[in-house]
Amino acid sequence: MTDDIQREVTELESRSATAARIFDLRRIIGGLFVLYGIIVTITGITDSQAEIDKAQGININLWTGIGMLLLGVFFLVWLWLRPTPPPVPAAEEETE
Q: Which of 3, 36, 40, 87 is most buried, by the most CB atoms less than 10 A from its CB?
């Protein structure tokens, strides 16, 4: 009986750790910034001269899109270099 409960708790902890990694905010923020950065960069590349003149000669969509892409890539690289650590099991917390 105790082994079944321990096995179930261990399984729930591993699911929780997996969910924490999947829903890490760095992944969500990075992914959204990359997606929107691509869209805004493409818009900036295809802007007409009249649209550029509205922003006093600066292709603001292109520069903003590149900035968003860089920020999104930063978040994703940060996630890759420093992944979310797995939670400490309850048995180890009690002994400390």
A: 40
CA of residue 72 relative to chain centroid, distance: 7
pTM of the model: 0.67
Tokens 């869209």 -> residue: 39
In a domain, 5, yes or no: no
> For the chain, what is the domain count?
1
For residues 34 and 29, what is the distance between their CA atoms, to the nearest angstrom?
Answer: 9
For residue 92, is it within any domain? no
Asked, for residue 76, whether it belongs to a domain, the answer is yes
Please enumerate in sequence order all residues whose Cβ is within 8 A of that of 86, keeping only pairs 6 or more positions apart, or say none.
17
Q: What is the pLDDT of residues 20-44, one digit of tens each?
A: 666 788 899 999 999 999 999 999 9
DSSP string, 11-78: HHHHHHHHHHHHT-HHHHHHHHHHHHHHHHHHHHHT--HHHHHHTTT--HHHHHHHHHHHHHHHHHHH
